[in-house]
Amino acid sequence: MRIQSILAVSVLVGSLASPAFAQTAEKYRLFSNDLVAKAAADMKSNEPRAAQALYERALVANPANVDALIGLGRAHEAQGHVAAA
C-alpha cells in the first residue's frame, strides 16, 4: 500500500512540467542520492537498521531511486527479514 501511494505521487509529480518543479524535483533526486550514500556507509558499518531508515527516506524523496530500492532489500535481508527483502 505504501509503495502504491509513493508511485501515485510519483506519477502526479511527474506530470508537472514547470521550471520551478524541475528544480525542486532535482533537489529531491540529489537529496535521495545523498541518503543512499549515507545508508551504504551504514551497511558497511554493519548498521542495517539505520540503513533501512535512510533507504526508506530516500524512496520517499525519489520513488524512482533504484539504488535505494535495492539497498532497502539488502538492509532487510541483513536483518533477517527475508520476506520483506
Write a brief structural summary.
By secondary structure, this protein is mainly alpha-helical. The protein has helices at residues 2-14, 19-44, 48-61, 66-78. The protein is elongated, with a radius of gyration of 14 Å.
Q: Could you please describe the fold and organization of this structure?
A:
The protein is mostly helical and 85 residues long. It has four helices and no strands. Helix 2 runs antiparallel to helix 3, helix 2 runs parallel beside helix 4 and helix 3 packs antiparallel against helix 4.
Approximate strand percentage: under 5%
Count of DSSP helices? 4
Main sheet specs? none
Instruction: Tell me, rounded to a whole number, the average pLDDT.
Output: 86
List keywords for this structure.
mainly alpha, 85 residues, single chain
Secondary-structure blueprint of this entry?
Elements: H1 2-14, H2 19-44, H3 48-61, H4 66-78
Helix pairs in contact: 2-3, 2-4, 3-4
